[in-house]
Amino acid sequence: MLPHSLLLTGLRDLRRRPLQTGLMLLGIALGVAVVIAIDLANTSASRAFRLSTETVVGRATHQVRGGPRGVPGALYRQLRIDWGYRLSAPVVEGVVEAPDLDQQPLRLLGVDPLAEGPFRSYLSDTGGQILGLNRLLVEPGTVLVGAGLAGHYGLETGDSIRLRLADRFDTVTIAGLLQPGEAGNRRALDGLLLADIATAQELMGLAGTNTLSRIDLILTAQEAQRLAGQLPASLRLARASEQAETAAQLTEAFQLNLTALSLLALVVGMFLIYNTVMFSVVQRRRVLGTLRSLGVTGERLFQMIQAETAIVTGLGAVLGLGLGWLLGQGAVRLVTQTINDLYYVVTVRDAPLTLLSAIKGIGVGLGAGAIAALGPALEAANVEPVTLMRRSSLEDRARRWLPWLGGGGLILGLAGTALLLVIQRSLVASFAGLFLIVIGIALTVPLATISLMRLAGPVLFRLTGVLGRLAARTVVKAISRTSVAIAALMVAVSVTIGVSVMIASFRSTVVNWLDLTLVADVYISAPTPGGTRPEATLDPSIAAKAETVAGVAEVEAIRGVVVDSEFGPVPLTATDTQRRRSAALYRFASGDAEAIWRAMTEGAIIVSEPFAYRHNLPVDGATVTLRTATGERVFPVAAVYYDYSSDQGAILMAREVYQRYWRDNHLSGLAVYTRPETDPSQVADALRTVLSGSALQVQVNRALREQALAVFDRTFAITSALRLLAVVVAFIGVLSALMALQIERARELATLQALGLTSGQLWRLTLMETGLMGATAGLLALPTGFVLAVVQIYVINLRSFGWTIQMTVDPWVFVQAMAVSVTAAILAAVYPMWRLRQAPVAAVLKQD
Amino acid sequence: MSSDHVMKTARRCGHHYLKAPLTFLWLGFLAAALIWVFWWATQPPEPTTPPLRLAATGDITGFARAFEPREFAFPRDHGPHLDFQTEWWYYTGNLATASGRHFGYQLTFFRRGLSPTAPERASKFGTNQVYFAHFALTDVGSVSHTSFERFGRGAMALAGAAGEPYMVWIDDWRAEALDAKGEAVRLVAAQDGLALDLTLRAVKPIVAQGDRGLSQKSEQPGNASYYLSFTRLATTGRIALPGQAAVEVSGESWFDHEWSTSALGPGAVGWDWFSLQLSGGQELMYFQIRREDGSLEPVSGGTLVAADGTLQRVSADEVGLEVLDTWRSPTSGAQYPARWRLHLPADSLDLIVEPWIADQELAVSFIYWEGAVRLTGTRHGQPVSGVGYVELTGYAASIAGQF
User: Fold this and answer.
1) What is the pLDDT of residues B34-43, one digit of tens each?
2) Pick from B146, B235, B150: which is nearest to B195 by CA?
3) End-to-end CA distance of chain B, in Å?
4) Do B51 and A176 touch (CB under 8 A)?
5) Sign of CA dihedral A497, A499, A502, A504
6) Can you tell me the distance from the alpha carbon of A725 to that of A268, in angstroms, rounded to the nearest whole number?
7) A259 with A372, same domain?
8) Which residue of A137, A199, A401 is the best one to mutate when testing the B interface, meaning the one whose CB has the most B CBs within 10 A?
9) What is the pTM of this model?
């Protein structure tokens, strides 16, 4: 076992260099923090969704679901009494928005409290005392809200909440607060408005048709089979878990992307650990050699280094936990925003640190520490007892290893590429490939650095004289450390390049696409919380109203619904077919735009690119089975169109076809074309006047486009934040590496000074050294970043979301990256230099 | 140093490194600290009493109340009286198979008006009427008592009551008239393999309890119910037990129909209710309302129905009711009377009333004991026997404010 004294020796050494130890601590803390933050954000968003789904689904095993027109209320009675499925409960569910509660989307759940017992616990937790539900049942417009939500906004029983319900505003009154039961979870009730089924029907405009969103059931397998046979063709018996499963699949790729990016920050942090520990080993060679002479075995020294690293990384990881939790609060907001924009509505107010996340974070931190310290610990174990070794022997050995390292890097890079090419559909494999490529390139950094310095040496000599050559040689001389700093900076900067190029390409692709899709002048829709897709149910009469407005040339109705398909629920958009779509919108098409349009009026559908990718639809002759009001129908696919609004895929069909099969003449939005001589914004004003009193949103083309791009930018806010964090970690890495180098070279520099080098010259020397390192990192980051961008655009994004992105490269990105790495390196040199100047030459020289 | 040596060292060192106890101590400490922090952080908050756990609101404004006797018309008055807050239809009976296997059954429908008038609602699900029902079966042979409870809203025909023709139901549990006057009814109830399907025919005319149907529950005017009974209904039908074939049964049932608004006076904590059918053709309904201070409501009393249908009112001071035995429920912990001597000196009636089986407690949303009983004793010196039902409320928790 490792003797106490040995560990204390190690720890004392760490304490003697508080700044370096502190930087290492900070580096690992930041790395762990980023991992934790993303993990917290992801898991809280998922958990919030799972909880709210569980709250809403309850103990139901099955659900009767209808198409866009819901489930007829009369069926509930038939199913419950005539068919005898007594464990059944009617449900009306919808998402509404509370304008006065931070625009918060809330889930309105309408239930029959008297049928709820077997299903959802929050009412039966109240002891079955149905009498207390008086108000909820009797008073129209009353709701129960979660105690958490009420507490957050200071709401009490009797207060009212204003709601935006699709195209109108209404006010509900709080009849009571929902308290989480003994087994319940407080968070599950966040964002929930519970109403009596009658109230919910009235609020959601379903009372007139007596429609339900679904009927929840608890069934045995046999009962389920029997019921499936009894239901009318327009209705479907679905497993209750389906909803949660679909949702989990939806966000899987998005969350995996974030996790991968957060791990990159940790990889950068690993370089930092390696550097710091290696420095401390090199610094202590004398001590280590002495210890060996005193009989301490190499194994013990290995243990000592690993143990002290574990302690520092452990501390760093704990620090990272706290930091990660803080970052997580911000990250969860960004992640939730994106999930709300793109996938489903979920309310998350905070990201509590879970035991699992903490274990993951600490484990990842300690693991990264142990791996990073492996090299230095082996180095320490191999210190020869007698030859109080000089560093040069380490450098000699390091240089002998370089070709192997480079070769290994090449192999890793090739393996990564192969992984990307061979395993076509696995996202995890794609990320593994990406990581292998990045690490492979990082391993070739030492060789590349040496080659670059050989080139730079003579050039600098010509430009600045002997100092320049000295600077280049210094970088090469300490290659075991300089190259690690360069590699860390290179990885961070290349990630920045890769992500920037990807986002910029994506954005320009979306901008082009918006130009093609948003062709009408004014859009009218009921803003649904979060989403940009119109899915509200509006009265068909608004189309006629809009047509009467002066300056309106044509009104195209849009109906957005979710229908059941052979692939599960899928968003379907039905549009009027007066105007042709641009041919450029189609990715694959069987015929010209005219032919596609004709096919659509005859009953064909077109599907979005992510839909075709996700479900592996063939280019020719694909069909999709959809459940219509009269049962399942097979629809031929006429084309695949570009669509960046949803990565779950969508279907487009002609509105007359939709009406024929679903017997639904409601609208979700209108696209208005104005007469050429009119000003669209004036027409929009006139439309607003006509529609005043409703909550409908009238937007001119430009505003809608801006909104779409705002959603896009919001989506990538978290990605940009992560990219920045990786650079911060890398900066700390470079700072710590340079400090180590400068401190190590104190004697050498003092000698130079004693030989007559002025302090100005010393400054120049150091700046040139660090500048060279930064430039090397920047230079190497350019191709690496480009490779990263290519992989992200053509592999990761395609496999994650099924989107085709046109790659556009702005050379400025590379210039910026170069500037960032050189600046970072030079900035990092300032402090060590300043410290160096404090030390009197003689004292430094005397030290040895 | 050869790379071979490096590998060996790495292997050796790695091996030893794992053994380093200090590292493990450190990791262990860290893990323990973390686990503690999370245990602490994830402790659920102190449970709070859900505000919904309130009983009746106590607000009876707008509801009709029972102040004076009224005329009844049938079958209309078998149906609901929606202007009153509370109403129930109580069917109980003692049945037996041809081979003498004895059963007791209870099928009760309750109605609760949440507001005096129904608000205008656009939704067909909208209602101010809540129904609940209890279905219980006592199988004396296997000493078992099974009970079920259902809730239903008085909308969309999910639950409801009607007078013309008479019907009351929740889902597929129902009582429905077989004749125009509602003197013959069919009862149907089934759940989890337990089922009954019975036909009941009144063999004696309807009894208006109390003062011409006005049954006073405290001395304060208005604290009363309208209370009608069929004290003897010839019953035939079938009973099915889980996993067993249905059996033919016959026997006699009792029907109580009662509606009121806040009938109980202040201080009432529960009641003991007896509906007894004597072998000589008489029936006795007797109730006593217990108050917090241990005394009885002075208005407690009952009705003795002679074989020819003549009614004789009895007041509590004419009745001696002595508890001879008690039984403690293992489920609720409540202690119930379990055997009585019921003595009516004026009528020379002296009965021992005892449950067929001890445990006939209903574990539904409010806990009470409702069970089949048998009686032995003398009337005018002649031995009598009989069967009946007893209801005991307020032993597990006060029923104050609930009815």
Assistant:
1) 555 555 544 4
2) B146
3) 94
4) yes
5) negative
6) 10
7) yes
8) A137
9) 0.74
